[in-house]
Design goal:
With 131 residues, this protein is an alpha+beta fold. β4 and β5 form a beta hairpin. The longest helix has 15 residues.
Length: 131
C-alpha cells in the first residue's frame, strides 16, 4: 500500500465519520483479540498531516492473523453491538451508531513491510459527533 493510498483512505474515513457538529468525547473501537498496540511513527506522521484536530483517536495494532480474519471479526462484532456499516473499500470499513463513528483500516503484511513490520496492521479511528 503506497503512503498516498493510506492518506487517502484515512481522509475518506474522517470524511465519512465526521458530520457537522461539535466533537465531544470519543467512543472506543473494539480491540481485536490478541492484537498488540504498536507505535508506528510513519503512520502517526501521515495521519497528523491530514488530521488538524486532536479530538479523534487513532490507534495502531498488529496481529499474526490474516486480514480476512480481522475483517470478519470486526464485521461480526460491530453488527452484534448494533453498529451500522456505512462504507467498505480498500481494506477500510466504517460504522455509525447514535452519531458516533468507528473506522478501521487493515494493512496486509505485504503492505506493512514498508513500515518494517511483517504482520497485519489494524488502524482504528474513533470519534463522537453531535448534530
Amino acid at each position: 500500500m503506497k503512503k498516498t493510498k493510506l492518506l487517502l483512505t484515512i481522509g475518506i474515513i474522517l470524511a465519512i465519520l465526521t458530520v457537522p457538529g461539535c466533537i465531544e468525547t470519543e467512543v472506543e473501537a473494539p480491540i481485536y483479540p490478541d492484537a498488540e498496540q504498536t507505535e508506528i511513527p510513519e503512520i502517526q506522521e501521515q495521519v497528523e498531516e491530514i488530521i488538524p484536530w486532536t479530538d479523534t483517536t487513532i490507534k495502531t495494532y498488529t496481529t499474526e492473523d490474516t486480514p480476512q480474519q480481522v475483517e470478519d471479526w470486526y464485521s461480526n462484532t460491530m453488527e452484534d453491538k448494533g453498529w451500522e456499516e456505512t462504507y467498505q473499500d480498500y481494506g477500510a470499513t466504517f460504522w455509525t451508531k447514535d452519531n458516533q463513528g468507528i473506522g478501521i483500516q487493515i494493512i496486509t503484511p505485504e503492505d506493512a513491510e514498508q513500515f518494517n513490520i511483517n504482520q497485519t496492521i489494524i488502524i482504528t479511528i474513533t470519534t463522537q459527533t453531535i448534530e
